[in-house]
Amino acid sequence: MAKSVDEFNKKRLRSSNITVVISIALVLFLLGLMGLILINAQKYSDYIKEQLVVNAYFAENYNAKDSVKIAKMEAEVFKEIQTLAPVKKATYISREMASQEAKKSMGIDTDALFEENIFPSSIEIALKPEYVDPAKIDEALKAIKAVPGIAEVKNDSTLMVDVYNNLSRILKWILGFSILFLILAVVLINNSIRLKIFSKRFIIKTMQLVGAKRRFILKPFIIEAVVLGAIGSLIGLLALFGLWYYFTNQIGSAFVQDNNQYFWLVLLVIGVGIFITVLSTVVATWRFLRSNVDDLYYS
């Protein structure tokens, strides 16, 4: 009879642990998914901002006799622009390249209308994402205009501002959902742990009544919480990156290439899983340690 009771208690304990691990894994899977979306949304936002280019034009008056001197001057200007703080990437476009681009856009295959390179050479500049901010775009344009040799700077500032505002709004919504999922993770994991500790309230109080110190009683529960939190986190991460790997293979894009961000996300998910599990265990156990015996029947 005693053996059957022990087996029943072991099965119930095993079932309780499995339930807690699954709860932790599911919650952390959703939390990690929001983290991946947030990381990639930020990178994709930066990528879109870098596609909003500024065109810096050299003087249109061009004398073939001074071609060597002009080429040297333009090369020096190009190098100087590359060193400017707002510049992410700069591409030099020669007069020949500008003419070819014009013919392509106009659908002209002959050189009859282009007896000479009538378009000025220029530099196509992609700004750093933070300089697409409406508060900093003017500062970036002024820095480019101030470079000797640049005759004119053109950009669609209205488009830049609209894109920046829309992307910022989307990122705020994603960040808001991530915080919401973090709160849900705390609540759901806490509830699962409380139910587990509740089923052991009589054991906790019995240990206390026979003289066991609170630290001694808490220690095995904390160790178990660390193990359950780690296992749940790892299962959640395996499911998360398995799904993400499948998704990126299907669309043919790996999104973020910086593995450091994935590394920090893994640490964050594991840390959150273990921290919430341990904290919930300590709070729930401490509650029964402070309660009276009569309260155990009405908790």
TrEMBL record:
Topological category with respect to the lipid bilayer: Multi-pass membrane protein
Domain ABC3 transporter permease C-terminal: 177-292
Matching Pfam families: FtsX, FtsX_ECD
Membrane spanning stretches: 20-39, 170-193, 221-247, 262-289
Record localization: Cell inner membrane; Cell membrane
Keyword Cell division among UniProt keywords: yes
Key words, A-Z: Cell cycle, Cell division, Cell inner membrane, Cell membrane, Membrane, Transmembrane, Transmembrane helix
Recorded family membership: Belongs to the ABC-4 integral membrane protein family. FtsX subfamily.
Function per UniProt: Required for cell division and gliding motility.
Protein name: Cell division protein FtsX
Taxonomic classification: Bacteria, Pseudomonadati, Bacteroidota, Flavobacteriia, Flavobacteriales
